[in-house]
Design a protein that fits this description.
This protein is about 35% helix and about 20% strand. The chain is an alpha+beta fold and about 400 residues long. The chain has two domains: about 150 residues, no CATH class; about 140 residues, no CATH class. The longest helix has about 45 residues.
Length: about 400
């Protein structure tokens, strides 16, 4: 392709042929626009380097620790492994400590069957917790401070067993125990306790404190002689209510102030409250329809020896809906009385129990039976643990004052 060559003259002629161009803008406006664009260009050139520098500083701060630790990677790795190992060892040590503490709290009559009978030796407060977790059903000497003990023998819901119920009321200076006995009869909660509604008695009661004689005066249409069961319950409830203590030695009867009372086909004038220790009753468990706590009630039969009574306490009495108070896991090697009123019970090595609360109830049945046979205290020999609930087996156990403490408040 042939290249065009323009002479200067030809270029000049061509430029002269172009249209005339005129700029009507003020020269100062033109200068201001040019200066403004130049200033903006300089500012943009300054901002960009500043942003880049700031980003570099931030990136350095983030990467600095890693860059420093990267210089000694082996030490860092070893430190991490060491920390992890120490943490694992500490966790294992805590697990072992917890297992040991749990095991130390579980004390049993058999190593294969751990049961909590004794507090942790390293935690004295746990003994109080265990004692607070179980209940005693009887009345003990320490319960009598400022209180009057009133005992009422109440038939159970089926009229088969006599349940001695002990009520503690505040002593009142202007009232005798007999005044409070008569007043409290109306406040008993027999049905609430799962027993028969029996009190107050439909009779007038009078007490001779000098002769220690209680007189029971009934109306002629009384119901206490209708049927042999009613007759037995009436006499048994009176005798059992006053068998403890020495306040009443004899009960006399009148019918509308005339001597004697007709019960069934017989007429009786008095009953003697026997205080002898033999023969005597054992104790079995009676579970009411409401509640899990049993009543500890006398056996229907009396026994010549305490060993016979304890043997009977291992058997269920289905006819009276009574359950054993001594389990197969609580075995006696021998029972030895002494001349000081203490009964020593030697436990066998195979003695075993699985329920702390039931064990406490069993101990109370043992103590109440010992009391019936005239003993003042029981010493448990060969105890596998020191404490069973509130009972310290390293010491003599004082027998209760009365059975089945209940509240009327």
């Amino acid at each position: 392709m042939k290249k065009s060559v323009w002479t200067d003259k030809e270029l000049e002629e061509l430029l002269l042929q172009l249209p005339k161009i005129s700029d009507n803008r003020d020269p100062r406006d033109i200068y201001q626009n040019i200066a403004l664009k130049a200033k903006k260009r300089k500012r943009q050139m300054w901002i960009m380097p500043s942003l880049a520098a700031a980003a570099a500083v931030i990136l350095f701060i983030i990467l600095a620790p890693n860059l420093i630790n990267w210089q000694e990677p082996s030490q860092q790795y070893m430190s991490l492994n060491s920390a992890t190992s120490n943490e694992n060892m500490e966790m294992a040590r805590n697990d072992n400590t917890a297992a040991i503490e749990d095991k130390s709290k579980d004390v049993s009559f058999q190593e294969d069957n751990p049961v909590k009978f004794e507090a942790d030796e390293n935690n004295p407060s746990s003994e109080k917790t265990l004692a607070d977790d179980v209940e005693r059903t009887a009345v003990y000497e320490e319960d009598l401070q400022g209180k009057e003990l009133l005992t009422y023998a109440i038939p159970d819901a089926n009229g088969q067993n006599i349940v001695p119920v002990s009520v503690l009321v505040q002593k009142e200076d202007n009232k005798t125990w007999f005044d409070q006995f008569k007043e409290t009869m109306a406040d008993l909660k027999e049905e609430e306790w799962g027993l028969s509604e029996y009190y107050p008695l439909h009779a007038n009661l009078a007490y001779d404190s000098l002769k220690k004689v209680l007189n029971v005066d009934v109306p002629r249409d009384h119901q206490y002689g209708f049927g042999s069961a009613s007759e037995i319950m009436f006499k048994s409830s009176l005798l059992s209510s006053f068998v403890d203590g020495d306040k009443v030695e004899k009960i006399t009867f009148t019918t509308e102030n005339e001597k004697g009372i007709v019960l069934g086909n017989d007429e009786i004038t008095e009953l003697v409250v026997e205080k002898s220790s033999t023969p005597a009753h054992g104790y079995l468990f009676l579970y009411p329809a409401k509640g899990k706590k049993p009543f500890i009630v006398p056996t229907p039969d009396e026994y010549e020896t305490i060993n016979e009574a304890y043997a009977a306490m291992r058997k269920e009495l289905e006819t009276h809906q009574l359950k054993p108070s001594l389990s197969e896991g609580l075995q006696f090697e021998k029972v030895v009385p002494d001349n000081n009123g203490t009964l020593s019970i030697f436990l066998t090595k195979s003695t075993n129990a699985t329920d702390l609360q039931e064990m406490v109830f069993s101990i109370e049945a043992i103590l109440l039976t010992a009391k019936n046979f005239g003993f003042k205290a029981v010493k448990v020999e060969n105890p596998p643990v020191k404490n069973i609930g509130p009972f310290d087996l390293s010491k003599e156990l004082q027998v209760p004052v009365a059975a089945n403490k209940l509240s009327i408040e």
